[in-house]
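Form 7-S
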Amino acid sequence: MIKVGDEFRHKFSYTQEQVDLYAQVSGDTNPLHIDADYAAKSIFGRRIIHGYLGGSVFTKIFGTLLHADGHVYMKQEMRFLKPMFTDHPYEAVITVKEIFADKNRVLYDTKVVDTETNADTIVGEALLMNKKAYVW
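Output:
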């Protein structure tokens, strides 16, 4: 039985190969993500990960790591606070914020933390429905 305040953490990183694949699939071929020379001259000094690729870790968590059977994504909101980089350690943290027992839904706070600086890179919230796992 889950309760408000419960937390789940998942450590991860992305490779440049994954960023390049995401660029192909999404069609977002902005040189900030895929061109090392171009990105070196940017305000970031190197290539950055697509914001939605960084946030896709929540899909992995909700879709395969946490109550995967029956989870239905209802909403995901994200604010991108800091750039993310390849081959860099991050941790996704989801926390139960609110429970809607009558609708079998849970609202989670979601964030990605840079584990070297402890700075939030992505913050937001997700609403999930699960008629198998969220039963009170």
